[in-house]
C-alpha cells in the first residue's frame, strides 16, 4: 500500500479522543476514519517487521495522477502511467487504502467528498503501480494492464498451486493478516505443512498427514479461532465428520454458535465486522480439510445474509434473524430436498429391482429406506473400496432396516453387474458442464454400467450445484493421508517404510469426475433432469435470487 | 357433460377430420367441457374436473399425445394468475385462452413442415416408419418445393399402417417402396436420411413412437445416417423412461386392449422408446432442437 501521506497527524487522534471524552457518539465519518487508522497502523507495523528497506523505498515513490488540493509532503513527480478510465471506488470500509485527509487537520471540513475520492483513486493507482514490478513470480496470474477498467482477474485458487513457492508464501502472509486482534504474530492461523512424497501428476495439490492435525500448533486459549470452529476443524481433519451433507450441516451449526457468542465491538457494524470475523475461521477450516462445493455454497449464502442486515437493526434482532436464516437453509436445502428427491426416486424403483450403490451416500440410503417403507420389493448390492471402506456403514444401516443386501469390493464389479438392473449414485458436487464429482471409484462404476447397458441414476440436491467446470480429475482434487494405504495382514505391514524408498509415492485420491454421457438421469429436488441440463438449473436459480 | 358424451364428442372430432392430431381433438373436447361445465364452484374444483376428464379421455384413446396435450392445456389455461373474483369471469378468461392455445397448435404442423423440408436435398432417398401425418406434411412441402426424392416405408406390423402411408404418398406422385420391417438393415446402406414422427417426446430428449422405431434408430446409428424426428410441441411429455421396460403400461397398448385383457404379458406392445443418443435432431414448432435442448424447453414449458 502506498505510504502517500504522513501517518495520521496528532490532530486526528485528538479530534476523536475529544469526542469520546465528551461522550458524543462518533459520526459515521469518524468511525470510518478510526477503522482506517487501525488498519494503517497494523500495516505499518507489519511492513516494519518484514520488508527490507527496498520495499519501503518503493512505497515512498508514489504516483500522483490527480494533484490533490493540499500537496502531500512525500509525493514526487507525476508518473508516466495514463490516468485511469473510471476505476471504481471500493467500498470505503473494505479498502485497505488509507485515505485520511492530508496533513492539515484544521482544514478537514473544507475538503469535499469529490476531493477525497480523487485522492483515494490516486492512492489506488500508486499501490497498483507499486505492486506491478514486484509480481513477476507467478506467470500463471492473468493481470490485465493498468489502462483497463478494474479487470475481472480470474486467479487460480491457491489449493491447486501448491508446487509454486510464491503462492504458498502469499497464503502464509494472508493467514497472518487475518488475525482480528492487532497484536503479535503468535495469534495467527498456522499453515499446515505437506507430508510425504507426492506423485508428480498431483504435486500441485496439498497432501496432509492425519497424525499432524493443525490444532496442535494452536496456542491455548486460542483467541483468534472460536472453540467450536477448532473442534469442527479437528473433526474434519480426523475424518470424524465426513460426507458432504454432514460436513455442511456441522459447519452451519458451528456458525450458529459463533453468531450466538458474537458481540459487535464498539464503532463497528455487525454486517461488516461479522463477515470479517468469519474469514479467519474459513481459512482455518480450509487448512484442516479443503472445503467442499456444498460448504462453499453455504458460506456464500451466510455471507450474503449477513451483509444484507440493515445497519439500523439491533444486535439481538440481527442475531436471531441470522440464526433463523441458517435453520431455514438447512431445512429447505437439505432435509426437505431429501424428501422431494426420495419421492421422485421411488417412482423409478420397481418391484424385483436389483439396485447397486457405491460407498455411503446419506441421500441414497435415505431413498432406499423410504422405498422399503413404501413396500417396494428390491434388493441391494453395496460396492465398497479401500481405504475408506465406507460401504460397510451403508451396509449396516440397510441391513438394520431389513433390506436384503450383498456386499462386494469394487474389483468384483464386472462380475456382479450383469445381475444389476439400476445403479444409484450420490454426488459430492455437480459441475456446470454436467460432470459429476463424487467419491473416487464412481466414474469407474458408471463406465462399467454403461457398457452393460445398466441405467445410472445420480441423486443430488441443488445446493451442491457449483459454477465450476472441470473435465478431468487431475486439475482439482483432494489427496488424503498416504499412510491410510498401508495395511497390516498377518502381522506384516508391507509398505511400512515407504518413505525410505525415494522413488515410491503413495496416492490416496478422494474425488473423481464422471462425464455426463455415462449418467442417464439426475434426480434433484426440482425434478428429474438429464445431466446436460445442470446449467439450466443454475441459470433458473440465479434468476430466483 | 358426462363420460359417454365426452368420449362421443372426442370420437366425432376424430371422425370428422382424420387429419387432426388426436391431441388437438382431445383439447377441443376439454374446451367444450369447460364451456358446458356447470358444476364447478371453485377454480380448484374446475381443475379437478378437468383432470378427471383427461383421465377419461385417456381411457378412450391411450396414446401418449392425448395425455401430453391434456396436461399442457391444463397448464396453459391456469398458468397466470386469474384475478377475477367471479368464477364465471374466470371461466370466460380460461375459455378464451383455451381457444388461443388451440389456434396456436393447429398451426404447428405447418411450422414443422416448413422447418424440415429444407433438410431434404434433391435426389435424396428417405426412409420412414409407419404412418405419420407430420412426416406426410413434410414430404408434401418438399415435393411442392419441386424436389425429387424417393421414399422407403416400412410396413409396420401388426396394423400395416405403412401401406396406408404408401398409398397417400403415391397420391402425391412421390415414388415410394414398401419394405418389410425385417428389411431395415438391408435397406439402410441405400438411404440418405431417416425421418420419423413421434407420439411423444420425453424429458430426456428421447421419443416414444410405433414399435420398430428403436430398431430403425440403432441401424441408422450403425450406418452413420442422420435420424430426424418431427414432432409438434404439444407432444412433449413429463416422462423419463430409463429403458423399454420403464415406459408406463398404459401407453404401451391400445385402450381397448387395456380394458379387455387380463394378463398384459400376453399382449404385444404397440410402442417403443428411442433414447436420445440415437437421435440427431428434432424438428418442432419451437425450432430445430438437439435432444439435450428438449429438457431446456420442457423446463420452460412446465416450470
UniProtKB/TrEMBL annotation, chain A:
Biased composition (Basic and acidic residues): 11-32, 47-61, 108-130
A GO MF term: guanyl-nucleotide exchange factor activity
Bias-annotated ranges (Low complexity): 94-107
GO cellular component, one term: cytosol
Keywords on record: Cytoplasm, Initiation factor, Protein biosynthesis
Domain of life: Eukaryota
Record bears the keyword Cytoplasm: yes
SUPFAM superfamilies: NagB/RpiA/CoA transferase-like
Region (Disordered), start-end ranges: 1-146
Subcellular localization: Cytoplasm, Cytosol
PANTHER family: TRANSLATION INITIATION FACTOR EIF-2B, TRANSLATION INITIATION FACTOR EIF-2B SUBUNIT DELTA
Quaternary structure note: Component of the translation initiation factor 2B (eIF2B) complex which is a heterodecamer of two sets of five different subunits: alpha, beta, gamma, delta and epsilon. Subunits alpha, beta and delta comprise a regulatory subcomplex and subunits epsilon and gamma comprise a catalytic subcomplex. Within the complex, the hexameric regulatory complex resides at the center, with the two heterodimeric catalytic subcomplexes bound on opposite sides.
Family per similarity comment: Belongs to the eIF-2B alpha/beta/delta subunits family.
Name under which the protein is recorded: Translation initiation factor eIF2B subunit delta
Organism of derivation: Oncorhynchus kisutch
Lineage: Eukaryota, Metazoa, Chordata, Craniata, Vertebrata
Automatic annotation (TrEMBL), chain B:
Broad class of the protein's primary localization: cytoplasm
UniProt-annotated location(s): Cytoplasm, Cytosol
UniProt keyword list: Cytoplasm, Initiation factor, Protein biosynthesis
InterPro entries in alphabetical order: eIF2B_alpha/beta/delta, elF-2B_alpha_N, IF-2B-related, IF_2B-like_C, NagB/RpiA_transferase-like
Pfam family, one: IF-2B
Gene Ontology molecular function terms on file: guanyl-nucleotide exchange factor activity; translation initiation factor activity
GO terms under cellular component: cytosol; eukaryotic translation initiation factor 2B complex
Family annotation (Gene3D superfamilies): Translation initiation factor eif-2b, domain 2, Translation initiation factor eIF-2B, N-terminal domain
Family, similarity comment: Belongs to the eIF-2B alpha/beta/delta subunits family.
Chain's role: Acts as a component of the translation initiation factor 2B (eIF2B) complex, which catalyzes the exchange of GDP for GTP on eukaryotic initiation factor 2 (eIF2) gamma subunit. Its guanine nucleotide exchange factor activity is repressed when bound to eIF2 complex phosphorylated on the alpha subunit, thereby limiting the amount of methionyl-initiator methionine tRNA available to the ribosome and consequently global translation is repressed.
Subunit structure: Component of the translation initiation factor 2B (eIF2B) complex which is a heterodecamer of two sets of five different subunits: alpha, beta, gamma, delta and epsilon. Subunits alpha, beta and delta comprise a regulatory subcomplex and subunits epsilon and gamma comprise a catalytic subcomplex. Within the complex, the hexameric regulatory complex resides at the center, with the two heterodimeric catalytic subcomplexes bound on opposite sides.
Full protein name: Translation initiation factor eIF2B subunit alpha
Organism: Oncorhynchus kisutch
